[in-house]
Amino acid sequence: MAFFNNHSDNLSLDDTALVRQCQRGNSEAMGCLIVKYQDRVYNTILKICQNRDDAAELTQDTFVKVLESIQTFGGRSSFYTWLFRVAVNLTLNYCRRRFKLSGVSLDAADERLEKDKERLALLLADPNGPDPAAIAQQRELAQIVAGLIGQLPQDYRVVLVLRDIEQMSYAHIAEVLDLEAGTVKSRLNRARTMLRELVETVLT
Fold first, then answer.
1. Which end of the chain is more exposed for a tag (fewer CB within 10 A), N or C?
2. Selection from 199, 96, 204 nearest residue 148 by Cα
3. What is the pTM assigned to this prediction?
4. Which domains does the chain have, with CATH numbers?
5. What is the DSSP letter of 164?
6. Over the stretch 77-120, which tens digit does the pLDDT of each residue have?
7. Under a CB-based contact definition with an 8 Å cutoff, are residues 145 and 173 in contact?
8. Contact predicate 57/41, CB 8 Å
9. Using CA atoms, how far apart are residues 25 and 70, in angstroms rounded to an integer?
10. Cα-based distances in Å from 84 to 65, 146, 161
11. Is 2 helix (H, G, I), strand (E, B) or coil?
């Protein structure tokens, strides 16, 4: 999802150089950083909050906050890590507020999971349809797995998204979430186990 388009030669500069230019008031440099990271930030937020409109709004909020705070960025972590810390914190705070205000139970999530099960069962039951190995490559199953990730408890979902989807290192995840590396690994293992159990439930 593109929120900003920029074809400047500044796109070839590294993050450190672009941040320095931003701190000197160069708005084009910020545009380059947005172009570089907007899709990754949006996709990460989407996997956490499970709503496209919310993800688009939170992505824009992330870059607004980064722009407002860029002068205070001291480089103690990479810009990439700092950016994702802002994005994840905004998203988690939003999700907590939404849950608290809406009073949503797990019924809606359970209903969606049941529909996903039915859809996959129909695919597998068709004798003329593709075998399960082929189905695993189809968009439908990928969508179901994405939906199942949304069933994970928030703390585990975030770690799974950052590691297995964003391919972020354990050290970066620890920085983003302000956790010990051991806690990150423990949550990731638990998240993978829970997701595997959900997938097995759908496939049986």
1. C
2. 199
3. 0.72
4. 1-103 (1.10.1740.10), 105-204 (1.10.10.10)
5. I
6. 899 999 999 999 999 999 888 755 443 343 444 455 455 555 54
7. no
8. no
9. 10
10. 12, 20, 12
11. coil
